[in-house]
Please model this.
Amino acid sequence: MPETEAETPATSAVPRRKRGRLKVFLGMSPGVGKTYEMLRAARRRKAEGLDVVVGVVETHGRKETMSLLRGLDVMPRAPIDHRGRSLMEFDLDGALARRPGLLLVDEYAHSNVPGSRHPKRWQDVEELRDAGIDVWTTLNIQHLESLSDVILRITGVRQRETVPDSLLTEADDIEVVDITPEDLRARLAEGKVYVPETARVASENFFKLENLTALRELALRRAAQTVDDQLLSHLRERGVSGPWAAGERILVLVGGDAMTASLVRTGRRMSDMMMDAPWSVAHVERPSGSRSDARSTGRLSEAFKLAEQLGGRPVTLSGDDVVRTVLDHAHRNNVTQIVIGKTRGGRLAEWTGRALATELLRKAQGVAVHVVTEGDGSAPEPTIRPGLRPGLDWRPYSAGAGFVGAATGVALLLDTRFERVDLGVIYLAAVVAAGVLNGLRPALVAATLAFLTYNFLFLQPRYSFLIGSPTDFLTLLLFWAVALGTGALAGRVREQARAAQRRAAAVSALLAASQTLSAAQDRATTARSLAEQASAAAGAGAVVLLPDGDDIVLTAASPEGVVLGADAMAAARWAWTHGEVTGHGTGTLPQTRWRFQPLQGVRGRAGVAGIDASAVAAGSDEERLALALLDQGAVALERADLAGQALESETLRRADRFRAALMNSVSHDLRTPLSTVLGSATTLIDYGATLKPEVRDDLLLSIREEAERLSRYVGDLLDMTRLEGGGLNVRTDWTDVRDALNAAADRVSRRLGRRRITRDFPPQLSMVEADPGLLEQAVVNILENAIAYSPDGTTIELAAYEDRGSVVISIEDEGRGIPTAELERVFDKFRRMEDSTDRAPDRVQGAGLGLAIAKGFVEAMRGRIAAASPIHDGPDGGKRGARILISLPKSIATHPDLL
Model:
């Protein structure tokens, strides 16, 4: 059977300080001396030189306790405004800033004033420990979450302030402060615990001798269990083998009823008794069953959260056969203990053998089944009076009555025209129609109404509700049987169809979201898509915050215009820093209406997503779908990060290649012209007076040519640097390409030698949007390349023409051409032919950047460039020459009749 597991946020990859140690002074009840003993031990540590600070201590007016505070550094409390009053609470931020060596924080289970950063003091302690601060605290055994039901049965008092058991299990040290119940009652009578009047009432209720004895046993057993857990951990770390009860695994089944929370706590207690055995909480969803109501869904959501707090693992199973689904999961996961609840009632199901507990006990093999009964002390469930039942839809019942009315009309018509007509079949058809279309309950109502109408109008005695014969009673039973059958089957089919529609909608939403997120190319686009998809899935607002330096910023929101307040941003930053779910409905900053979840990818945290949880029902299909989308979004954001890093790496790799090729080129192409210039200048300085005029002129010409060559080379390097660095600034304007071609031809005229340039331009040519300077420089580079590889006495043709969508520039030479294998790479950087004809055959001219720069300039103007070779017949019968074509797009295509 398919199953899904609720996941907890992964631990952050961000380096953190060494976690602070926690010591718990554990007692069986108030008044045993936990705070007194903690202060005595703290004074001893202070005498040893440790920096000890009292964060918060409740003395309750006890003189002995107050005397121990003398000489200790006590932090002032912080005021918090609540309902117009200023209440004093523990100063968490002050303690984090003070960073003492040891901090005393009394009353571990204390509930903070609304508006504090955390609802519970134990969460303050966890933040202090995360900051590397050692903490000592006090705790009464009745405040453990898993024991709240046990404490209720023992004392009759339900504890509202509780601490997750896992925190006590993970404590570094536990010191049990213990006195006998008789001594505690004596202290109570002496007024050392409460004032006399309060002490008298307490001794008759909570502080009964039997209550204290039971609480003492719980405290001692829990401390012993923790010590045993620590011993096992120590043995495992040392690799010491031992007879550990590692094979026990517990599965707690919950169904969203009133016992759900109690069953979760029972599972935790069983785990403690079985050497901290792994345990999970499972709920079975029936695809063919009716959809859970809002109350059951809320209970399941709270149960899963409670299981996570207590160290359990929430699991959702799916299957029509609940027993088979549970047992299959148990066998696959080596479950040895199953815990199930049994509520009052359901005696008929037990007699017929269909009760879940009975079925499990009958079919389970090799698994222990623990049945927990509903206690008398359970909190009463609020009842809904029939007249106030919310959401009752009368339309199906009205439709059933309508079917019966239509059947009555047809029956009356047939009864007047025909004799011996079985009119009951007509009413039976009405009952079937009501069951098929509207389900079981409307069908039962329609069956009852049909029988009463049929009996009143057509059965003897007529116009009376008296049943005249036993067969008439059988007719009623038949109507009800048909209603039950058709209604149940129709309802089941309808629920299956609805479940299939919900699953199909969820799969379609996930598929659409996956496609949308996969198409996003960068983080901002991915965040925007994720916010839109999560908002659509949850039916509420959604935001995505991404890291920016040391902080996170609101990057995307749906609907747009969402602004996060200071409390929401604080919750989002906490989720980012600590990797925890924060905000509405959580234990951290719950006063905001947003719930923030860290987006945990494979490699680390990619950001934080928030959903307006005040508009989404806890545990609903919408919430689960939105959370699934957030998981996909985390991977998509990480993929966008990786794509950006890959692009950056590729850019760096190309830059390294460019740098290496540049250095290789510089080693020759700069040194050669500089050597020529230096040698010619030195000769002129040393021997200028003795040189012949023609020799002097030749040396000066060499200096000028090499200086021009050096200038072109440096210009090419600067142009390529602009292209590689993305710093090319294209200034487009309406341009007549003939002007740019003429200017380029004039610039290279001095280097033609005995070559010539012909120009073939039409009298009328459309103008294009281009950068005249870049276009001219691109043509100059191509012409210089043609000159370098064309022999003297040849012609270079410069032409321009146009077609419907573009203006084309053609530059042809009569050189030896470009080998076919080189045509695709002729525009690569540092690509040069073996020799040129401008200088000596063994000298390679230029850095091989001219055509690459021309290509970059043309493409920056949205144009295209290509090469073709050979194009001419040579004198030896071979093929020669090369043609470079530049195509620049027109803004508006020209009509064929105008060309």
